[in-house]
Structures are given as structure tokens and as C-alpha cells.
Amino acid sequence: MNDIVVGMGEALWDVLPEGKKLGGAPANFAYHISQFGLNSRVVSAVGDDKLGAEILESFREKKLYGIVGTVPYPTGTVQVELDAEGVPCYDIKEGVAWDNIPFTPALEDLARHTRAVCFGSLAQRSVVSRETINRFIDAMPDGDDILKIFDINLRQGFYTKEILCNSFRKCNILKINDEELVTVSRMFGYPGIDLQDKCWILLAKYNLKMLILTCGVNGSYVFTPGSISFVETPKVVVADTVGAGDSFTATFVASILKGKSVREAHELAVKVSAYVCTQNGAMPVLPDVYLD
Known about the structure:
With 292 residues, this protein is an alpha/beta fold. The chain has helices at residues 25-35, 50-61, 105-112, 127-139, 161-170, 178-188, 195-205, 244-257, 262-277, and strands at 4-8, 12-16, 19-23, 39-47, 66-71, 76-82, 88-92, 114-119, 147-151, 173-177, 210-214, 220-224, 227-231. The chain has a domain at 4-205: Ribokinase (UDP-N-acetylmuramoyl-L-alanine:D-glutamate ligase, 3-Layer(aba) Sandwich), CATH 3.40.1190.
């Protein structure tokens, strides 16, 4: 076991009015995991085009390694437009490279050496990538110390009850925010119950090790069977919130893999994600104080 940690799913460019920025939760997650000294990999796909070559070059610059296939589809982009009030509107292009991540012998071999994987719902909108993600998880080793993190990440209409239900069954750690929990509750028929009770229901129903609930400025919770951790969100001057959730997940997972308690992992994850909010972009270099 090489204790590899994998971020799996979309790799794309966020195209903003001021230019394009590297995006995609799996890359953000894998990058922050690597900052904690763990062996990380990103799994995705890009097109055989200029945008795809630029993603691969950006990964090389950040020493971000993985299996990123080149496929005959355009590299993914998200068009971000601002209205008169500056509120962003997202148009996530379909039929792109990361919708078509191939399952290869190399990917199967990586799965057999993976200690933890983080995946979301967005990359499962297409059948090809969905099947690849499921086959990867199924090829991972069994064991109590193997972590399968479903960072639900609902976007536009790119999810179904069936996809969410299957992912809940495949994972043993669920990360969800308060807005997503409301959406899931409506789909699964848990109306009129407070947020904490909904979390306990999901934890028990899907036999999860942990459920992480983030509530923005209202703090965050980690539920484990029989216990709950709550940490307030620090007040910081926000540059942008891009990638903050991914840095939270990565910090929490890295801490658990290094043997920290749930409470220690939770407290550090909150500090790191607050720091990332004070920086521009999703992948700032973290200060050493967080990496001990």
C-alpha cells in the first residue's frame, strides 16, 4: 500500500471576465493534499487542444501528478458571467473531456494502491465518467482505514436521485453543505426535520464513518456515530471563496490519514479553509504553521 490519495473528476478552466483560472474540485483537493506531504494524484481528462495543454502545463508547474487522459473532446470550460450587481452566473459546458474519463489498466492499478479517494456528483453527469468513477472505487482495497469521500458538490441540474443514492452507498465519508442538505432532504423525503437530525439519518442509513456539514459563516459540523464536533467559522477578510471547500476536505482527510483525532482534523480544516478565503484563487501556498 503506497497510501496514495486521489482527487477524481472534472479538470477545467473557469472563464471569468478578467481571464481564465484553473478549476475543478479534484485538482484543488489533490493540490492541497500534496501540501501536507502526502502522495496525491489527480484523475481527469483534457482535450487534445490548447486549453488541455495549458491544464497539463499548470499541473506540472504545481508538481501535481496523476492520470489525466487526452480524449477527442474539447477541454472543459465554465463560462462565468456577472450581472449588473456583480452576481456570477455559471454555464458549465457539456460534452467535454472530463465527461469522458476513460477507465484504463493504469487507472485500475492506481485504484489498487489508493488509500483515499475524493469524488463528487458533477463528474458523474455523463455515463462514461460515472462508470469510471464507480469502477475505480470498486477496485480500491477493502479495509477500515480506506477512505472514500463523496464531496457532493451539486451544480446546476447535473445530478439525479439515483446518482446521489449510489454515491452515498459507495462512500464512507460524506461532505455536504447546508444548501445541498436541504436539496437532498427534499429529494429523499426528510422535510420538516432540523439539519442535525437529517445528518444523523444519512449517517445511519448509509453506515457512514463521518458526515461533514459546512454552513458557511454559521460554522461546520462533523458527525460520527455517537458524537458531534462543531467549530465556528473564523471572521476573515475574504478575497474570494474559490476552492475553500476543497481545501477544507483536503486538510481534514490529510489530518485523519496522519492519525489526528476528528476534532483536531476539524479544527485545522476550518483554519486552512478560512486562510484560503483570504487569498486569490483556489490553490494558494499554505503557510508552514498549518502543515506541521
